[in-house]
Each structure stands twice: as C-alpha cells, then as structure tokens.
Amino acid sequence: MSLYKSNEDVEIQRKSCLMVSKTLTEIAKMIKPGIQTIKLDDFAFEFIKDNGGFPSFKGYHGFPYSLCISVNEQVVHGFPSSYELKEGDIVSVDCGVYMNGFHGDHAYTFILGEVEQAVLDLVRVTKEAVYLGAEQAIVGNRAGDIAYAIEHHTNGKHGYGVVRELVGHGVGKQMHEDPQVPNYGRRGTLKKLQENMVLAIEPMINLGTRQVDFWDDGWTVVTRDGKPSVHFEHDVCVRQGKAEILSDYAPIEAAEKQNINLNSSYY
Ligand code: MG
Ligand code: MG
Known about the structure:
CATH topology: Creatine Amidinohydrolase
Helix content: 25-40%
Shape: globular
CATH architecture: Alpha-Beta Complex
Bound molecules: magnesium ion
Number of helices: 5
Number of strands: 15
CATH class: Alpha Beta
Strand order of the largest sheet: 8-7-9-14-15
Number of domains: 1
Distance between the termini: 40 Å
Radius of gyration: 17 Å
Largest sheet: 5 strands, antiparallel
C-alpha cells in the first residue's frame, strides 16, 4: 500500500480528523454522572452521519459500536453499554470518522469530578506525551523517535506502565496503515517518516503495571492490576521542520471547561 499522500489528500483528510474533534466536543458537553455510555455512542452515530461521515469503527473487524469508551482500568476498545458513568470515573473516548475517502481517528480522556492527585497526574502526563510524540513527526526522523519521546516522558520520568500490545499507526484511506508507531522504543529506529504521512499517535499509559489482559468480548483491553489507564490520540501530519496536528483539542477543552461535571484542573 502506498504511503504517499499529496497536499490535497492531507487537506481532505483534515476534514475527517476535525469531524472526530467535533464529535468529541459534543461528547464533552453531554458526558456526566448517570449517563449510560451507550447513549454517548447512539449520539455519536447520528451526529457523524448527520454531518456526512460514517463512524470508522462501526463494523471494523466486527466492532459493534461507533465509539470505544474505556472507563478506569479499561485501556482501550471498551464497549459502550448500559453502564452509568459515576463521579470519580475517568473515561477515554476514541472516535473515528470516514469521510471523502479518508479516516480521522483520535481520542480524549475525560475526568468526572474528584479523583486522586495520582490520577490527575496520569492524565496530565499522558496528554503531555501525545504532544511530545507529535513534535517528533518531522521529515528525517523515524517512528522510534516518537516512541522514545513518549516512553521517556511517561515511564522514564514518571514510572508509568507503557502498554506495548497496542500501538499508534498511519491513518489515511485505511484506518490502520503503515508505519506502526509504538509508545516505547529507541531513537533512530523503525520506519523513516516521509512528508505528508499522517500518524495516529496514541499513548496508552497505565498508573501501575504495563501488563494488560484481553476480555472474552474480543476487544476490551484492561490493566492486569486493575489500576487506571489513560489514552490520548492525535492525528499528526509529518512535515519538514515542524509537525502539524490535524485533529484539534481546543474545542474539546473549551467544552470540558464549561461542563461542571468534568474536572480539568490538571492543566
Ligand atoms: Mg483511535
Ligand atoms: Mg488509532
């Protein structure tokens, strides 16, 4: 599969990425204690379709939903369900949109109400890590430079568990394309980054052990020690000199700050 993307391709893909951001912004407005996570999924399905896209995840290798909603010790790929969110939950919402031939795929972790300082720190550090990884997405670097930046910040500086079983990836006409972008590794290793590659950079960081288990539903990934896990994901275009993030957290953060049920005190 060709990795080459023209500037025009990137502009088309940017719209898909921003449609994910818009969807997550709406989720940031409505998420609260007492809401069933399936209601967020129902909303996302309609919202994406009403805006001319299709939820990338729905039907992807049989995945039944539009969003992955992973609460507390769930790392990624959690199923929306009748579970009612409650005060103290941390909720990672991962969303994909397919539109005009390209996918966008990014994620954000929300905090409902009061949590321990250790959890606030985990969320902050993981969010910092997605940006530190993104900064490395420049021509001349390799995927290992992104991997190292994320691992160094989260594990090296803070001692968190870096999940290894799941990795970031190229994203474009396919939701998962080359190259793989792990969240651990050595500088100067793995695939060379080429101009206009779009990478889904997505640290999955655990408060405790990096070990994870897979549920029998075939999807849900949980921490082995039951401690919380955080997931942030941005779509990042490889450029000369300075990486360009195509997805946008600004409207999500604005909605997060407006929503009195959400805790954004970590940043
Ligand atoms: Mg994702
Ligand atoms: Mg992804």
